[in-house]
Amino acid sequence: MSDCLFCRIVAGEIPSERVYEDEKVVVFKDINPKAEVHLLVIPRQHIESLDSLRAEDDELIAYMMRLLPRLARDQGLHDGFRTIINTGKGGGQLVFHLHLHLLGGKNLPGFE
Ligand code: AMP
Ligand code: ZN
Question: Given 38, 46, 99, 101, which residue is catalytic?
């Protein structure tokens, strides 16, 4: 059994509120939402962070990026959304399985 929280979510060993999944990614609601809509987009495969990406991950990363606007629209975010990726301890990363935060709607935090 993996000791990575998000690998365990992918495996279904830890429950999550999934809103989308396919052969490459799983998307679920953040347990501690920072805005009205707060999703986490993660690859099924374990990649620690942006810092550990290899050239062969390029297609997967592009895929995840292009998925974001589709997910946002499905959540009713028709006038935009915010994407955050925390990398490493210094970047505020708490879970070391790569994840894209997709935020939008009311109470959108920071960066204005
Ligand atoms: P980060 O600081 O970028 O590593 O963010 C980790 C995110 O994972 C935080 O926003 C947490 O609220 C979220 N999180 C932690 N555990 C769970 C869980 N079991 N289900 C959903 N989201 C989680
Ligand atoms: Zn993992």
Answer: 99
Nearest-angstrom CA–CA distance, 21 and 90: 30
Domain coordinates of the chain in residue numbers?
5-104
Among all bound ligands, the one having the nearest atom to the CA of 44 is: 2
Å from CA of 30 to ligand 1 middle? 6
Whether 99 sits among the annotated catalytic residues: the reply is yes
Q: Considering the domain delimited by 5-104, tell me its CATH architecture.
A: 2-Layer Sandwich (3.30)
Residue-wise pLDDT tens digits, 80-97: 999 999 999 999 999 999
Considering the entire predicted model, what is its pTM?
A: 0.97
